[in-house]
Structure formats: C-alpha cells, structure tokens
Amino acid sequence: MNDRINLSSIRACVFDAYGTLLDFNSAVTRERNAIGSGRVDRLAEIWRRKQLEYTWLRSLMRRHTDFRTVTGDALDYSLAALGINDTGLRTRLMEACDRLETFPEVPAVLGELRRRGMTTAILSNGSPSMLDAGIASAGIGDSLDAVLSVESAGAFKPAPEVYQLATARFGIAAREVLFMSSNGWDIHGAASFGFRCVWINRSGAPAECLPGAPVLSLSSLTPLLRLFGD
Q1: CA atoms within a 13 Å half-sphere pointing along the CA-CB vector of 10
Q2: pTM of the entire structure?
Q3: Are strands 146-149 and 119-124 parallel, antiparallel or unpaired?
Q4: What total number of domains does the chain contain?
Q5: Which residue range forms the structural domain that includes residue 91?
Q6: Tens of pLDDT along the chain (230 residues)?
Q7: What CATH number did the domain enclosing 174 receive?
Q8: Would you give the DSSP letter of residue 18?
Q9: Are residues 145 and 170 in the same domain?
Q10: How many angstroms separate the CA atoms of 207 and 216, rounded?
Q11: Residues noted as catalytic
C-alpha cells in the first residue's frame, strides 16, 4: 500500500467512533484503583471483545438490540469472568461510556478536514444517545456534518445496510466515501460494500483474512491529512 492515494473523487470522510475517534479503554482506566492495576487491561480486553462478539451473535440470531444494552451485557460477562462483584463500579463504567476520551490527534484532524471543506461524519454501532453524549463530552460535534447510528438500519456492522446509511445520507456513491476505522473487520466490511478504506491500525494487528481490503494502513489519524495535500 502506498502512503498517498488519489482522493480526487472522495466527497466524504466517514469515521468509526469507538477505537477510532473515541478511546473505549479510557472508561476502564479511570477506574484503575477500584478494579486493581493487575486486572485493568484484562477487563478492558474482555469487555471490548465481548461487546463486539455480542453484536455479531445477535445479528446472526436476528435478535437486535441497541448498543447500550449490548455494552452492558458485555460488561456483566467481563466482571463475572474476573470475579468482580461491585454494582457501583458497574454503574460508573457504564456512565463512563458517555464521556470517553478522544485519541490525542482527533480534534485537530477533524477540525483541519472541515477547514479544508471536506464533509465529515461518524458511522457507528453506537446508539444515538451514546453517540450524542460521547461527542458532546469530547467537544468534536462542530467538526462533524452527520452522526449516523446503526439503529437507523436495525443491524450492526458489518451488515451492508449499515454502510449504506452513509451513501444515502449524502447522496453519493460508495466509491466516493473514504472510511476510517481501527477495527480490521469493519474495514473489510466497508471495503466489501465499496468504500475506499483506511485502516487506523493503532495496535499493530495483522491483516484480517476477509473479503475486501484497505487502500492504506496507518498507525493513527495524524498522517491522514497528508493524503489530501498541503
């Protein structure tokens, strides 16, 4: 993959939220003392993994529910797996999901894209209330033209009807969307739909063996601006 791609046909930059713009792990690290330093990373890993697994399993079972419910169910499993029985901690962790920290470069990158006249949006599994709260807390709402939740499609990513929300919202073709996500499976789903995709591979994970592929892989959003020139 090259470090520069032809973006002359791109009309919208669309971002995943959790793990790409908002740091989901920040909800757990705030409660380090209550969880115990030896279990913080493990809780974060299990919670996030189960959160995603439950979206996929519910999709296969055709038992859709909103992402806040899925997040709570995944947290209950994770706390039980680690033998943590603390209702106050559970409440605080769920509340923290509405005020996640952004990754350091996010405000500047979104702001610069908007300054350059690029349409920007979020396309997320998050429920509308979670996204509204998270974006308000992060202070990035003024840098977004739209916030799209899977609830409008009644399905979770990587269902094609989710990615179609972006093309329908802006009245553009799939190839005119540049999609950014930190989740490899999300990138492959979006690429299979027809988006041009940049994988924000923050963890240095290996490539997924799935249909579709990113046009570029970056370790953060910072180099994204170089794709659009100075």
Answers
A1: 22
A2: 0.94
A3: parallel
A4: 2
A5: 26-96
A6: 444 566 788 999 999 999 999 999 999 999 999 999 899 999 999 999 999 999 999 999 999 999 999 999 999 999 999 999 999 999 999 999 999 999 999 999 999 999 999 999 999 999 999 999 999 999 999 999 999 999 999 999 999 999 999 999 999 999 999 999 999 999 999 999 999 999 999 999 999 999 999 999 999 999 998 887 65
A7: 3.40.50.1000
A8: B
A9: yes
A10: 12
A11: 16
